[in-house]
User: Fold this.
Amino acid sequence: MSVTVEISNIENLRRLRNILGVGNDSEAVEISIENTIRSYESDIKEAKEKELPDEFWDDLLASPQLPKGRAIKAVLDEREEARY
Assistant:
């Protein structure tokens, strides 16, 4: 499949060709697209590996963190202290 793309900054395209050491614009753009995709794919993979498993969140949120009414009391106490 062929796609036509308009490049507004020809100088950047020439610089890209020189950096990549290729002879034509199509090859330079194609290599750039491949590199960009690879970069994003690895970033996404790393982010997914760093995510905590669903079981962690299920366990964390399954039990209340504060006794009933404690959060409200903490907010009221904080407001009371802020007045002074």
